[in-house]
Amino acid sequence: MPPRGYSGGWDRVRPVSRSCLGGWVSLIPLPLLLAVSIPSSAGAATATATDSPGSSPVTAVASLKGSDLLLLLPAWNGFYDVSAGAGYNDNLLLGSTARQQSGFGILRANTALWRRPVEDGQEFLLTLAATDRRYWAPRDMDHDDALQLQARYTRQFGPRWALALEADGFYSDQILDTSSIDTPGVRQRIHGGRLDGLPGIRWKSGESTPWVELAPIVSQTWLRAPYDSFSEHGMRLSTGRPYGWRSEWRLDYSLRFRDYEPHPAVTSGGLALPGTHLGTLRHEVQWVDRHYWDEARRWFTTTKLRGRFATDNASGFYDSRNLAVAEQLNLRTSRWELALEAEYGRWDFPHQPVPAAGGGAHRGLDDWVLVARVERRVGLSWKLFLEYERESVRAADPFDGFLANVYTLGVTREF
Which end of the chain is more exposed for a tag (fewer CB within 10 A), N or C? Predict the structure, then answer.
């Protein structure tokens, strides 16, 4: 069966994995989870990791791009860090009533390999982020893992045209919210991975003028039973413009078809239609603005707006709508880094009734997320960090709702 909210899929990753991935997990645009990090042709590739708290290697790349030190660097540069810590999760299985709690140990690794844009007009960025948690209490879940790999290669062809090749890989072994309409409130461990490719062509008329990019989308997701693997293909059209102190806004529209070939389409009552397979058409619009408020780029905010609409290829039982807004505030000084992110998303499944709610109510939920992080540099290569993550879901079906809090304290070593 498809995971709950098939139209969202991997996008509704719960707090146990947000520290590794950060923000909205999606392909658009090799996400700023989901888009803009730095005003350059490689901005999309660095976006997700840059938004993620604790992603020091990619932050280092972002701070160097456009600086006076750029030409003094070698062509290839590596940035690495490793973090270790401990924490507490008060709802391991994302339960709506009974809540399993446990302390945990955590190990993270982040790395970035960057070929700076030299005279030949070529740039390459490879980022890797991995997280492993080990829970101490004798509960139903003893660990969770996440791994994300991103790569982007750009090649300038004259002052106006550029080729951009993107690849994104993701692996998860975590508890995610995977409820379907016939089994509401079920949260299960998902083992699976995803591989995406987005080759694109970009055009711009000048350094500070809007640019336009067109890219086909090819994606494959593998999930272990009882969930069905699926493929996606489509197109993405993007535009953006740098402004101010290396700020930038970006607007993306994508059209995708998702094919659950092993899973049949269903009737309006959720019953399988023999001899068919489920497919969904997805429209998504996303706007992201990364704004630096001072010339030294110590203060910056990231504003994200997203709309996603999906229709299935049969009765409309799996049709869905999702609207989301998020705001992130960052402050960086020589010794301190503060990050605060708030996100709200509304999900509606208009053809999935909730009999317990009465009055012809349909399935829907409100998803609130809050993430806060404080870092303190100690010496040249060490940092102490404190994180807090909270997610609250309220739904028409009470079994769909839950509240989860995660607290983490640790140390980071940069190389």
Answer: C
Give the per-residue SS3 of the chain. CCCCCCCCHHHHCCHHHHHHHCCCCCCCCCCCCCCCCCCCCCHHHHHHHHHCCCCHHHHHHHHHCCCCCHHHCCCEEEEEEEEEEEEEECCCCCCCCCCCCEEEEEEEEEEEEEECCCCCCEEEEEEEEEEEEEECCCCCCCEEEEEEEEEEEEEEECCCEEEEEEEEEEEEEEEEECCECCECCCEEEEEEEEEEEEEEEEEECCCCCCEEEEEEEEEEEEECCCCCCEEEEEEEEEEEEEECCCEEEEEEEEEEEEEECCCCCECCCCCECCCCCEEEEEEEEEEEEEEECCCCCCEEEEEEEEEEEEEECCCCCCCEEEEEEEEEEEEECCCEEEEEEEEEEEEEEEEEECHHHCCCCEEEEEEEEEEEEEEEEECCCEEEEEEEEEEEEEECCHHHCEEEEEEEEEEEEEC
Residues 284, 28: Cα–Cα separation, whole Å: 9
Q: What would the mean pLDDT of 297-323 be, rounded to a whole number?
A: 93
The count of other CB atoms within 10 Å of the CB of residue 331 is 13
Average pLDDT over residues 148-153: 94
Please name the residue that has the structure tokens 């983490």.
Answer: 408
Mean pLDDT, residues 73-97? 90
- pLDDT attached to residue 127: 95
**Tokens 């700023």 found at:** 32
Helix axes 56-64, 43-51, angle to 10 degrees: 140
Looking at residue 383, its pLDDT comes to 96
**Above 70 in pLDDT, residue 186?**
no
Q: Which residues does 328 contact at the CB level (< 8 Å), separation at least 6?
A: 23, 51, 301, 302, 304, 339, 340, 341, 342
Q: Tokens 């809007």 appear where?
A: 210
Give the count of beta carbons closer than 10 Å to the beta carbon of residue 392.
14
Contact 231, 220 (CB under 8 A): yes
- Summarize pLDDT for 33-42 with one digit per residue, the tens: 222 222 233 3
Cα 342 to Cα 324: distance, rounded to the nearest angstrom:
11
Higher model confidence: residue 116 or residue 382?
Answer: 382
What's this model's pTM, rounded to 2 decimal places? 0.80
Rounded (10°) CA dihedral 175, 178, 183, 184: 90
